[in-house]
Amino acid sequence: MWAGSLALNGLLLSGREGDFATHKIEHEVSAIYDLTHGIGLAILFPNWMKYVMNENINKFVEFAHNVWNIPNIGEKTDIANSGIQKTREYFCSLDMPKTFSEVNINDEKFEEMATKAVYFGEIGNFKKLKKEDVLEILKLSS
């Protein structure tokens, strides 16, 4: 409960910018399908990372270095992609699915989910996501 409280109360973001667009997108997925939030995030998060990476490459390089101990040497894109790959590998080590098709979700409701995800406007901080962006992330995750 303590970890959950810290994760959700905003304290960890003090002085930092975070981006919880994947949570908003996943809420729309699990609102329609019988899917836990964690499984939905494991599917979406690496694809969202790839989609928005170039908008804030330094954040993804920092993530790769600080979370996965990837040396901060070489091309930023390569470092960031290595961090994303390590994240995917970690989720796979937990036996999490990589795609929606693995949990029997097809693209039938993608349009509806994308519309609802941005119902109140663009989402995200690293890259402002519109409906088309959300739709593309869902497709990348299928």
Structural write-up:
There is one protein chain. The chain is mainly α. It has one domain: Dehydroquinate synthase-like - alpha domain (Dehydroquinate synthase-like, alpha domain), CATH 1.20.1090.10. The chain is 58% helix and 0% strand. The chain contains seven helices and no strands. The chain has helices spanning 2-8, 21-32, 37-52, 57-68, 76-93, 110-117, 131-140. Helix 2 (21-32) packs across helix 3 (37-52) and helix 3 (37-52) packs antiparallel against helix 5. The chain is globular and about 40 Å long. 30% of the residues are buried. The model has no long low-confidence stretch (mean pLDDT 93).
List keywords for this structure.
142 residues; mainly alpha; Dehydroquinate synthase-like, alpha domain; 7 helices; 0% strand
Radius of gyration: 15 Å
Low-pLDDT residue spans: none
Q: How many distinct domains?
A: 1
CATH homology superfamily name: Dehydroquinate synthase-like - alpha domain
CATH topology: Dehydroquinate synthase-like, alpha domain
Give the rounded overall mean pLDDT.
93
Helices and strands, in order, run as HHHHHHH
**What percentage of the residues does DSSP assign to strands (E)?**
under 5%
Query: What is the top-level CATH class?
Result: Mainly Alpha
Give the total of beta strands. 0
**Secondary structure category:** mainly alpha
What percentage of residues falls in helices of 4 or more residues? 55-70%
| Spatial shape | globular
Largest sheet: none
What's the CATH architecture name?
Up-down Bundle
Distance between the termini: 32 Å
Helix count, DSSP H or I runs of 4 or more residues: 7
